[in-house]
Amino acid sequence: MVIDGKTKTCGLIGNPVEHTLSPLIHNTLAGLMGHNFVYVPFPVAEGRVDEAVRGAYALDILGMNVTVPYKSEVIGSLTAVDELAAQIGAVNTLVRTDTGFKGYNTDMSGLFRAMTAEGIRIEGEEILLLGAGGAARAVAYLCASQKAKKVYLLNRTLDKAQKIAEEVNRVFAGEVIIPMRLSDYSNLPERRFLAVQATSVGLAPHDDEVIIEDAAFYQKIHTGFDLIYKPFTTRFMRLVKDAGGEACNGLKMLLYQGIDAYELWNRTTVTQKDADAVYEKLRSATNPC
Ligand code: ATR
């Protein structure tokens, strides 16, 4: 990589940022596509997000990713926000415009693209969504915006599932999201579903944990999509496979949230060949054996 007077810079703001895989994604893409572009992590201390965004704009930074804990707080420093990101209330990508940065949520567009790449549909589907934290809430919005037929939102704490369901159903003027207590899964209709695992249960180093142990639950799943990518095969995925279903991890979501951001910043389209090459690098970085 040669850095010269014309190099365009993008970066990541968050706290902490030391373990991010985003530089691997973006600097690999720049190399493959021959762009004079560099991506660097910028740790930002609590209370300094607005300063960081203004400073980045003044420095002619082309775009930024935003990670924990600033995905909501950053919205106050933007001049425009994409519709889905505004509904979700979380932004992970800032794109430079003439007046300031515009915010997007490529976590969700990336999840949608990853699902499409795996041949998974949302439109018209009945979906089980496990969890009611920030990630699950964003997935609930994605499912409603992509016209899922029904989303059974299962959570250990029913209140949180109800809150998300009320909010999303109000925004989309329907009854798409049906909140349920996690332990009530035996009351689900007799059919097989796409299931999205959006809790942190099973994340390394807690590889042996899973949100529901009962093998009978997994008979209800034709495809299980775990947002976790470490370990590469989660216990949830193994249980789905043991029951005869298909299972995917979240590594392609990570890949495509990065590719969507790269495309927005550089006004380009990444080829499948380049996407596959970056995926292989991510695979080696997260799953060394
Ligand atoms: P994030 O914002 O990253 O999605 P979060 O807000 O901490 O994470 O939410 C974590 C989710 O995992 C919640 O849905 C949580 O259930 P509760 O709302 O009942 O707390 C769920 N979760 C965490 N540990 C769990 C466990 N051992 N069993 C069942 N659900 C669990």
Any overview of this molecule?
By secondary structure, this protein is an alpha/beta fold. It folds into two domains: 8-104 and 255-286, Rossmann fold (3-Layer(aba) Sandwich); 109-249, NAD(P)-binding Rossmann-like Domain (Rossmann fold, 3-Layer(aba) Sandwich). It has helices at 22-33, 49-58, 83-88, 106-117, 134-145, 158-171, 215-218, 235-242, 251-266, 272-286, and strands spanning 8-14, 37-43, 63-66, 80-81, 93-96, 101-104, 126-130, 150-155, 177-181, 193-197, 221-226, 246-248. The protein is globular and about 60 Å long. The mean pLDDT is 97. The site of 2'-monophosphoadenosine-5'-diphosphate has 14 residues, from α5.
Summarize it.
This protein has helices at 22-33, 49-58, 83-88, 106-117, 134-145, 158-171, 215-218, 235-242, 251-266, 272-286, and strands at residues 8-14, 37-43, 63-66, 80-81, 93-96, 101-104, 126-130, 150-155, 177-181, 193-197, 221-226, 246-248. With 289 residues, the protein is an alpha/beta fold. It folds into two domains: 8-104 and 255-286, Leucine Dehydrogenase, chain A, domain 1 (Rossmann fold, 3-Layer(aba) Sandwich), CATH 3.40.50.10860; 109-249, Rossmann fold, CATH 3.40.50.
